[in-house]
Amino acid sequence: MGWFRSKDLLDRTFEIGIILKGLDGLLELIGGALLLAVSPATINRIVGGLTQHELSEDPRDFVATHLLRVSHGLTGPAVGFAAAYLLLHGIVKVVLVLALLRNKLWAYPWTIAFLAAFIGYQLYRIVLHPTLGLTALTILDAIIVWLTWREYQKQRTARQHGQAVPTT
Predict the structure, then answer these.
(1) What is the DSSP letter of 75?
(2) DSSP H helical segments within 38-75, as ranges?
(3) pTM here?
(4) What is the DSSP string of 79-107?
(5) With contact defined as beta carbons under 8 Å apart, do 138 and 120 qualify?
(6) What whole-number distance in Å separates Cα of residue 16 and Cα of residue 9?
(7) How far apart are the first and last CA of the chain?
(8) What does pLDDT average to over the chain?
(9) Coil, strand, or helix at residue 160?
(10) Mean pLDDT throughout 137-144?
(11) Which H or E run includes 116?
(12) How far apart are the C-alpha atoms of 57 and 159, rounded to whole Å?
């Protein structure tokens, strides 16, 4: 089996979507590793330094105040949980994306299940604290689930009919 090759707009959208998920997974791996390697005090100093100028201009800056709040919430158990979460989530994403790009049939249902679980969690978070960003992410994930299902059906049908797997 070769690498996935898109031909039409939906195939390209699927490919771009899963590549973005893979890049997100890489960022999660880096973030998890940094949480293990850097102390919470160092993280607080870095975030404080990065947000100091912005907060001096606007003490209520949305991004800066939220970054500071998150960094101050990083304590011993929270850091360990966040690091483990990011590392596990990142590894799963990267493995699934690589398998999808290599047309591994087993990866399609696993990707759908993985994203569906996170959509469920995101919907729960939206009910508690609705945000535009999380809503947009949930819609994007739902679209990727649909595109993954679509590609899975194409791949399965081709294999059931003994055809060469299309590299759409």
Answers:
(1) -
(2) 40-57, 62-72
(3) 0.74
(4) HHHHHHHHHHHHHHHHHHHHHHHTT-TTH
(5) no
(6) 10
(7) 12
(8) 87
(9) helix
(10) 93
(11) helix 107-128
(12) 61
Q: With 70 as the cut, is the pLDDT of residue 150 above it?
A: yes
Burial of 107 (0-12, 13-18, 19+ CB in 10 A): buried
Q: Which residues contact 145 (CB under 8 A, 6 or more apart)?
A: 112, 115, 116, 119
Q: Give me 115's structure tokens.
A: 């994203």
Check if the beta carbon of residue 119 is closer than 8 Å to that of residue 138. Answer: yes
* 110-122 pLDDT, tens digit each: 999 999 998 999 9
- Reference 31, options 93, 69, 84; nearest CA is 84
Residue 91 is predicted with a pLDDT of 95
Read off the pLDDT band of 109 (50, 70, 90).
very high
Please report the pLDDT score of residue 27 as a whole number.
94
Query: Are the C-beta atoms of 97 and 18 separated by less than 8 Å?
Result: yes
Q: Is the pLDDT of residue 145 over 90?
A: yes
Residue 15 token pair: 């490919």
Judged by phi (left if over 0) then psi (alpha if -120 to 50, else beta), residue 166 lies in beta
Cα separation values, 149 from 14, 105, 146, Å: 10, 11, 5
**H helix count then E strand count, the chain:** 6, 0
